[in-house]
Amino acid sequence: MSISRRLLLAGAGAAALPRFAIAQNTSPAGDDRPEITIAVAKISNSGVLDPLREQSSNASERWLGSIQETLIARNQQGRLERVPGLATNWRRIDETTVELSLRPGVKLHNGDTLTAEDVAFSFGPERMFGGGRSNLPADIPAVARRHWPHLARVEVVDRLTVRFVNATPDVTMEGRISAGGSEICSRRAWTENGDWQANSSKLVGTGPYKLREFRPDASLTLDAHDEYWGGRPPIKTLRFLEVPEAASRINGLRSGEYQFACDVQPDAIDDIEVYPGIEVLGGLVLNHRIITFDKHHPALVDPRVRLAMAHAIDGRSIVDTLWDGRARVPPGLQWEFYGDMFVKGWTVPPYDPAAARELLNDAGYDGTPIPYRIRKDYYPEETATAEVVTECWKLVGLNTPIEVKENWAQVLDKAGPRGVRDWSNSAVFDDPVSSIVNQHGPNGAQQQDGEWTNAEMNTLSGVLESGTDVGKRKQAFARMLQICEREDPTYIVLNQNAVFTAKRRELPWRQPPSFFLDFSPRGWES
């Protein structure tokens, strides 16, 4: 480990850890459940809690499922397959309609019992899609249509039955129902709070923990929801504290200030686990680290320059050195999780500096600076990765100065030339429409931010969204990979992400195969 590697040994030297005790809450009488403090790099990128604005996998996904839940859940103790959530079962009526039976007796955090009216409201104009007298900010309906491009309505059949009706055929409706952005809220709480702004940081849901306090850029405090349908929560109080520096998160864990520390640097795991009483859990998740292009930059107009940048990156070295071999170079923007839609044999552009130089020469690249915008370790190893990547680019003749930005607004700022930037992409359900279309399609954030567009890609996005023939959908997806990663590159896939959480060894918690920190009875083994 290098001297600068997070300074994990600084301050405490080789001294033994202090005797550890989880903070106990003695009110009400007899309640001996612990209070847990979790150190995270970031709680919310947007400064609010609303899931239609706060879309970050490695920030809000960690806590959102503890407050608000979806009708169809993902098995966080398995392989993220779909399982009953707030709905006990569901059935296809036809290619455009899914009917769901709600779990009876589910209590919302305000004491109400969940009904079909809450579900319909959660997907209605006032909450999600806008229109009429709705005063939603413009970005909320835009994000809602990204998740639900053709949802026509949610019908109330009876108190515990709802029907999702699409305007077009959609074989992915069950996946969309299970995904982030489809969380269920309380109709009464929303209406009483007022408009979207008033509700943006006052989530009322059905999860095992209810919101006590949110302090943007500082902390999020949740208390046990003892009427939770899934059983009595094992923790009395959860406190998420924003601790940007990885070294500070680990040192706070060692001192007993925190019981969990998120986003452990992979090459520091062995050094962390030498301390008695601490272990690190985690592994690969359904998320890829990517670099995206703004092809309007003068040097990036020519797709050969973008493809050259992909060929110049030694992804294997990044995985082996910065990730200590715990991540992997994936087969492009896809995951085996897609099942029949997975395109076998596809790869990212191979590391080939000679091919990169030839492409740059053919394109007439003249050394024009291409700024590379990052945030300071918002992603694990982000700064170190950027340094390796820019060195790879330098070796083939590219001029890519790193620009460190404080927040996402600065990363996306159109003032000055935008070149390339760091990002990530997740498979939020088991179909490529959830990743390549959701993020890079016509309604996706990259096209909406004005960085890139491609007419054929947009046509194919429609095939994925409305097509019902598996073979034709897979053929369309394969063609999209060809466009986005070879012919008119919109991104470079660096590596499949891995998530590691350090914790006190005696705590009976299990790391899900996702960013979510599951503190429900299902995720606590005792």
Low-confidence stretches: 1-27
CA radius of gyration is 23 Å
Would you tell me the structural class of the helices and strands? alpha+beta
Helix content: 25-40%
Shape: globular
Largest sheet: 11 strands, mixed
Give the total of beta strands. 17
Mean residue pLDDT: 93
Could you provide a short overview of the structure?
The chain is an alpha+beta fold. It is built from 18 helices and 17 strands.
List the helices and strands and how they pair.
Layout (H helix, E strand, L loop, with lengths): L22 E2 L9 E7 L23 H4 L4 E3 L7 E3 L2 E8 L2 E6 L13 H7 L2 H5 L9 H9 L3 E8 L2 E6 L6 H6 L8 H7 L2 H4 L9 E7 L3 E6 L12 E6 L3 H10 L4 E2 L7 H4 L5 E16 L9 H9 L3 H7 L31 H11 L8 E4 L6 H14 L6 E4 L2 H5 L7 E7 L9 H5 L4 H4 L6 H12 L3 H18 L3 E14 L22
Parallel strand pairs: 2-11, 2-12, 14-15, 14-16
Antiparallel strand pairs: 1-2, 3-4, 5-6, 6-8, 7-8, 9-10, 10-11, 12-17, 13-16, 13-17
Helix pairs in contact: 10-12, 17-18
